[in-house]
Design brief:
There is one protein chain. A five-stranded antiparallel sheet has the order 4-3-2-1-5. The mean pLDDT is 89. The longest helix has 7 residues. It has 84 residues and is mainly β. The radius of gyration is 12 Å and the shape is globular. 13% of the residues lie in helices and 43% in strands. A hairpin with a 5-residue loop joins strand 1 and strand 2. The protein has two helices and five strands.
Length: 84
């Protein structure tokens, strides 16, 4: 079984995670940046080179058209994967 990070690299993923306030959020995102169908028209490439943090997953949120992140420990489940 692939990890959420691997799934995000392959296509569009609908998944849930627990927010810091304890509520559960369903998100639709991707890390498949080389495919215009995955990121959508509103995609904004990163301005610089970030420093990856262990346990933090950054993704492009297709519903909010913005960069978002969550911790691996807050990940709950994958609902749907649309591989491209």
């Amino acid at each position: 079984m692939s990890t959420i990070k691997e799934q995000l690299e392959k296509g569009i993923v609908t998944f849930t995670f627990a927010k810091k306030d304890g509520s559960v959020r369903t998100a639709k995102g991707t890390r498949c940046f080389d495919n215009p169908l995955a990121v959508g028209e509103d995609y904004v490439p990163p301005k610089g080179v970030g420093v990856p943090k262990d346990g933090v997953i950054t993704y492009w949120d297709l519903d909010k058209s913005a960069w978002r992140c969550f911790t691996e420990s807050s990940y709950i489940e994958t609902i749907k994967v649309e591989e491209l």
